[in-house]
Recover the amino acids of this structure.
């Protein structure tokens, strides 16, 4: 017996998803997951706050970046529709602020804050799209394990640059111009 044809998910499926979920399309499949738990949201908010001043606004740092929480990215022919926890563009990569609800220009950096419900998708499905699209750096933060993994695109594949944990201080590329205190990500 022939298998039923699978309908490719579209942007309309994302738009039609309930407002209480995050909807993404990867390789034509719609994925939905709930909004983040407080521990997850806290780590995401904190890393964004730590990077905003020195890199987005240029306060006590080099500036030169646009940083956004949960940007909706449309990449590839499908397109794949991804929503990383944070995305960053060098100002020369994104010289003008888009008017659409989504961005179709490849970010230079993304950060995914992992949870039990999203870790497999983030690692196995989204990272290959980031790789294909040439995203230079991916950070994976795991709030429960209190770790930060930094990956750099090295040719056609990602290379793990370093893993930091708990209360370590770090200089994590591409934001290595400033010392980051990881303990701030986990404190309530």
């Amino acid at each position: 017996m022939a298998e039923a044809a699978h309908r490719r998910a579209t942007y309309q499926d994302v738009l039609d998803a309930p407002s209480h979920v995050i909807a993404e399309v990867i390789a034509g499949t719609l994925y939905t997951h709930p909004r983040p738990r407080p521990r997850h949201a806290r780590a995401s908010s904190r890393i964004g706050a730590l990077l905003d001043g020195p890199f987005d606004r240029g306060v006590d740092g080099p500036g030169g970046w646009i940083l956004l929480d949960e940007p909706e990215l449309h990449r590839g022919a499908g397109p794949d529709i991804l929503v990383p926890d944070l995305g960053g563009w060098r100002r020369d990569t994104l010289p003008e602020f888009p008017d659409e609800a989504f961005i179709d220009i490849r970010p230079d950096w993304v950060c995914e804050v992992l949870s039990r419900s999203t870790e497999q998708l983030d690692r196995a499905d989204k990272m290959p799209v980031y790789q294909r699209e040439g995203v230079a750096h991916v950070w994976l933060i795991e709030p429960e394990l209190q770790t930060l993994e930094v990956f750099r695109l090295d040719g056609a594949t990602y290379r793990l640059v370093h893993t930091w944990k708990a209360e370590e201080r770090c200089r994590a590329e591409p934001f290595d111009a400033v010392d980051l205190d990881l303990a701030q990500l986990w404190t309530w």
Remarks:
- Residues 38-57 form the longest helix (20 residues).
- The two ends are 55 Å apart (CA to CA).
- Helices lie at 11-16, 38-57, 119-133, 183-186.
- The chain is about 25% helix and 30% strand.
